[in-house]
Amino acid sequence: MYSQGLIGADGGSEETQEFLDAFQARIDAEEKIEPTDPMPEGYRRTLVRQIGQHAHSEVVGMLPEGNWISRAPSLKRKLALLAKVQDEGGHGLYLYSAAETLGVTREQMTEELLDGTAKYSSIFNYPTLSWADMGAVGWLVDGAAIMNQIPLCRCSYGPYARAMIRVCAEESFHQRQGYEIMLTLCKGTPAQKEMAQDALNRLWWPCLMMFGPHDGDSAHSEKSMKWKIKRFSNDELRGKFIAATVRQAEFLGLTIPDPDLKWDDSLNGGKGGYHHGEIDWSEFWRVVKGDGVMNVERVEMRKAAWDDGAWVREAALAHAAKRSAKMAAE
Amino acid sequence: MALYQALIELADDHLVLGQRLSEWCGHAPILEEDLALSNFALDVIGTARSLYAYAAEVEGKGRSEDDLAYLRSEREYLNCLLVERPNVDFAHTMLRQFYFASLMEPFWQAAVNSDDKVIAGIAGKAVKEMAYHIRHAGEWIVRLGDGTEESGARMRAAIVALHPYWEEMFTPCECDALPDRAALRSGWEANVKAVFAEAGLEWPEPVYGHVGGRKGEHSEVLGRMLSDMQYLQRAHPGATW
Ligand SMILES: [Fe+2]
Ligand SMILES: [Fe+2]
Question: Which residue of A has its CA nearest to B240?
Answer without folding.
Answer: A188
